[in-house]
Amino acid sequence: MNATPRWLDPEQQAAWDSFIRMQEKLIGRLARRVQADSRMSPSDYIVLAKLTEAGGRMRFMDLTKLVEWEKSRMSHQVARMAKRGLVRKEDCPDDGRGAFVVATPAGREAIEEAAPVHVEHVRRLFVEALTQEELDTLARISDRVLAHLETQPD
Question: Where is the HTH marR-type domain (predicted)?
């Protein structure tokens, strides 16, 4: 017995559609800019940004969870980045099965060059479109949705 779907009402659908269109357009534009400005893929950028924010070294699984990727996707991404000298993997002495992902000097240099340009695009495309009150409201809404997601099954 299938339950009747709980369709979104027109206002809910409009809010959802607007959110998705905004998010996809914004992320798409930022991704293209990162690629053009730094010759890094958006995936390279997010891995290096999260690694350097954490001091340049993270457990592989912690990084995977932080960026909300599947283990196999992170494994392939780290392998590609390691071939280009942006990161390296190190064995974890506490856990024979675990590993660390470490930003190399070349990786640190790449993110240090890309980040200022990226933040200017974020400012131009996102921050400048909103008032400070709207940014505060958006942050509260985002935090509320994130907290709600933590209570829901995947």
Answer: 1-147
